[in-house]
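step=predict obj=Cytochrome b5 n=130
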Amino acid sequence: MAPNHKTFVFNDVAKHNKTKDCWVIIHGKVYDVTSFMEDHPGGSEVILASTGKDGTFDFENAGHSDEARELMPKYYIGEVDQSTVPAKHLVDMSAGNTAYTSEMSRQNVIRILQFMVAIMIFGLVYAVKA
Ligand code: HEM
């Protein structure tokens, strides 16, 4: 990674929000993924939905592999000046961060509920058959 990397202001990065001109912010770094859009295994739509904001949560939430992370330097173009990122877009993934942890625990609750509903359906089917 070049030591003299460029630093962008959030609004300039956010302008690149089209399939043919697409930049994303992940962990404070800016990636120009325009040339990758067509090849992205998750499709171009999901990346497009992560533009104009901090895409860190979306990226991490998709559970990317180490191989995916190894591809990233290819698209790296610089850093985002964190002071220019609107507070509502700031994603702090550090342990104990309440916004991130509450989003994660909300998702865990949904998973547990889905699991319980599935068990109940199995139970009902079994009860009806018995
Ligand atoms: C530089 C940026 C990115 C790179 C290099 C990248 C790369 C990849 C790669 C290689 C995969 C295949 C599975 C894997 O190896 O993990 C993948 C899957 C996926 N990516 Fe990305 N990705 C990027 C950004 C994003 C963003 C911003 C999102 C937003 C949500 C996203 C969403 C997904 C999803 C949902 C999948 C799963 C597709 C499936 O399993 O059907 N990716 N990505």
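step=describe
The first helix runs from residue 10 to 14.
step=end
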